[in-house]
Amino acid sequence: MIQALYDTVARWVPPGSRVLDLGTGDGAFLQRLVEHRKVEAEGVEKDGTLAARCIERGLVVHQGDILDGLDQYGKNSFDYVLLLGTFQELIDPWKVLEEAFRVGKRVIVGFNNFAYWRARFQILLRGRSPVTARMPHPWYLSPNLQYFSIHDFKDFTRAKHLVIEDIAFFSGRSKIAVLPNLRCEQCVALLHDGDA
Asked: Residue 58, SS3?
């Protein structure tokens, strides 16, 4: 994920919040939130080596699948649930979001934009699945299961009655304001459940 994206998420999470990070990775960002935003944090990470790194950082992280990690928490256990870079890797993203909104009041989702212009040109000109700086793996090694654009994501949130409170678009080190579905590599959205 792009550093500016993480900076945006850190600004969205108020100091002292209760945060659950799904797909914690090595824990660097969660540790940053703990140290700089003084959040109460927990994480779930599937990769045992990465979960061990989180624990070495002093974080409370459970090793396991995201859904397995969510079922141990009660309703509204957290203020924010983070899905940064893992959303497009989920087999059933709606089921995970339902559970995320059960345990958290707001969900922050970060994802790759598969309508990014470089990806479009690779498909158009080469006739091949795209490989970019943010999607560095060939299709057969990619962790991505869902390939969607910013427009697709917005359609999804409307269909599921989710409200986008804030959204930000990034490419390289820059924040994108104009034509984000074409120019943005990665996006982050702050959501709440419109039916809640």
From this structure: coil
CA dist list (Å): 107 to 52, 157, 167, 178: 25, 12, 12, 25
**List of residues 6+ apart from 73 with CB closer than 8 A:** 20, 103
CB 188 within 8 A of CB 106: no
DSSP 8-state secondary structure symbol assigned to residue 15: T
Phi then psi for residue 125, to 5 deg, are -85, -35
CB atoms within 10 A of CB 126: 10
- Give the other-Cβ count within 10 Å of 68's Cβ: 12
Structural tokens at position 79: 């203020």
- Segments in 71-125 forming alpha helices (H): 93-103, 117-121
pLDDT in tens for each of the 196 residues of the chain?
A: 678 899 999 999 999 999 999 999 999 999 999 999 999 999 999 999 999 999 999 999 999 888 777 888 999 999 999 999 888 888 889 999 999 999 999 999 999 998 888 888 888 888 877 777 777 887 776 676 778 899 999 999 999 999 999 999 999 878 999 999 999 999 999 999 987 6
Collapsing DSSP to helix, strand or coil, 78 comes out as strand
192 three-state secondary structure: strand
Instruction: Look at residues 103, 45, 107, 44 and name the one whose alpha carbon lies nearest to residue 78.
Output: 103
Q: CB–CB of 104/78 below 8 Å?
A: yes
